[in-house]
Design goal:
There is one protein chain. The protein has 12 helices and 12 strands. It is α/β, with parallel strands linked by helices and 303 residues long. It has one domain: Glycoside hydrolase/deacetylase (TIM Barrel, Alpha-Beta Barrel). The strands form 3 sheets. Strands 1, 2, 3, 9 and 10 form a 5-stranded parallel beta sheet that branches. Strands 7-6-11-12 form a 4-stranded mixed beta sheet, with no helix packed on it. A hairpin with a 2-residue loop joins strand 6 and strand 7. Helix 10 runs parallel beside helix 11. The structure holds zinc ion. Zinc ion binds next to loops.
């Protein structure tokens, strides 16, 4: 059993102002430290609705996962019928609270929806503008730049990883995979360490085979206990800090009782020597319960 890194994605304003305080209480009461990754630009989450027209299976997933009841209609309509609020404008209070509580804080992009839907068609200059926009908000609030980045929607490209390398990020958590690696795109290997998410997320599991939240957390728990290498679990402030709070708290308690140690991704990254981390190609993959493709660590090179 290698411990569990908690990666908390904050995609929306509701996630920041409601989900994060709930998670800070929940984690603080248990002495657990985690890594928060916050989108710091406009909250266009409502535009996700229009993926219905572009992405097969999205409407079915929305209905299957009961997204409106999980996220609330305000979040789903944000940036469409309602004007897009600026998440960064609310970062001044919440980011320092996360840091003061001993959590790691990193970037989850600027415009989450834009990155998620368009990364592959964006120019490197536009990608850089997105990362710099988030970095400017972050540094303006916390007085220093973020050293960690987590790509919205697990969408990574050679251009996005070149930007992270040029901006001097220590590590990223952009992809899904099995363990630390240096991402390879064609003949270029990124010098920025990648710590992939290794476990399924709750929104994937809830839409899969009709699992209840309790059953879904049990499934994640079993995988954590079975595996000997450190694992990374991505949760969402909107869900685990919202309607799934109680089940998430039970999940942490059960793992804690079984001796699982929780770690911040940055602490793990600091212990790894890039020279000892294997390269692996980044490929497009599909995951049960998730619409569209995500960037994945190619497995054949892990031998
Ligand atoms: Zn996200």
């Amino acid at each position: 059993m290698g411990g569990l890194g908690l990666k908390i994605d904050v995609d929306t304003l509701a996630g920041l102002v409601q989900g994060v305080p709930a998670l800070l209480r929940l984690l603080g009461a248990r002495g657990v430290r985690a890594s928060f990754f916050v989108a710091l630009g406009p909250d266009n989450s409502g535009r996700a609705i229009f993926r219905v027209f572009r992405q097969r299976g999205f409407l079915a997933k929305m209905l299957r996962t009961r997204a409106p009841s999980l996220y609330g209609w305000r979040t789903l309509l944000s940036g469409t019928l309602l004007p897009a609020p600026h998440i960064g404008a609310h970062a001044g209070e919440l980011l320092p609270r996360m840091a003061a509580a001993g959590h790691e804080v990193g970037l989850h992009g600027y415009d989450h929806v834009l990155w998620h839907d368009r990364l592959l068609t964006m120019s490197k200059k536009d990608i850089r503008r997105q990362v710099e926009g988030a970095q400017a908000v972050f540094a303006g609030v916390l007085g220093q730049p973020a050293h960690a980045f987590a790509a919205p929607g697990w969408q990574a490209s050679r251009a996005s990883r070149e930007v992270l390398a040029e901006m001097g990020f220590l590590y990223a958590s952009d992809t899904r995979g099995t363990g630390p690696y240096l991402p390879r795109f064609g003949d270029w290997v990124s010098p920025v360490l990648e710590l992939p998410t290794t476990l399924p997320t709750l929104d994937e599991l809830l839409g899969f085979q009709g699992l209840s939240a309790r059953e879904a957390f049990r499934l994640v728990e079993q995988r954590v206990l079975r595996r000997t290498l450190p694992q990374v679990f991505t949760l969402h402030a909107e869900l685990e800090g919202g309607p799934l709070q109680e089940e998430f708290a039970r999940f942490l308690d059960r793992l804690g009782e079984q001796g699982v140690e929780f770690f911040r991704l940055g602490d793990w990254a600091a212990k790894l020597r890039p020279r000892e981390v294997p390269p692996a190609a980044v490929v497009r993959g599909r995951l049960p319960g998730r619409a569209g493709w995500v960037s994945c660590q190619a497995q054949e090179e892990r031998a």
